[in-house]
Structure formats: C-alpha cells, structure tokens
Input
Amino acid sequence: MPDDGEVYSEALPVVAEWRRALRALDSPPHTLAWLKATERLLRLEIQLIDDRLLTLSPDGTPWDDVRRDNELQLREHRLRELDRQRLWIEPLHWVGRVVTLGRFGGAEELGRQMQREYEARRAEVLSSSWVRRDDRSRN
Output
C-alpha cells in the first residue's frame, strides 16, 4: 500500500494543510472563526481540484473534466456565499465584542470563560469562608 508521500508527491503539503483546515471546523457554525475556517478550507479545495487535479475524499475514483468543473463551480459559489455572510457576521461579531466588553467572540467561548470565572470566584469565596471558620475556632 503506497503512503501519502507517494500518492500526493508535490501536493502533500497542501493536502496536509487541507486536513488541518478540515479539523479546524470545530467552531460553532456561523461564527467569525467558523467563517474563516470554512473559507480557508474552500480555497484549499479549489487549489487541490484545479491546480493539482486531485479528487477529494470520500470519492475514490478520479473525476472527469465535467465533474471537476462542477466541483470547482460549487466551491466558488460557496465562497461567494461566504462573502455575503461575512457582510453580516463580521459587524455583528464586533458589536457583540463591544457590548460585552470584549467577552463575546474572543478566542475562548463565552460559556467557558464564564464557567472559569465562576469557579475562580467560588474558590475565592470558599477559601475566605474557611479562613473565617479558623478565626472563629481560635477564639
């Protein structure tokens, strides 16, 4: 069985980047991070299909010229749709950041950030209550 280096040869770096971009789509849909990851993935797919003449998985059989053109048109159409989505998502992202004083839409999801802050505050309160109990028991 041939390895990836033999199969993809010069296209291997682009294929590896495409695989990383595919894994990067873990962001919630219709967020700015998801939009950027999807755009990057589509641009890499266009490069693989058009420049490298590769067939994307899960298809195992090579594409003919008609199928290749259809796949390219589909991805180019999707890129145009993403540009239209960006017109709405990007301003909404920054409005959310301003309204929430930078807590929304950062590198960390708001829910996780709030959970972390809650746990820190809880630990602080619990530790101060233990200090008060120690003071009472000494008196």
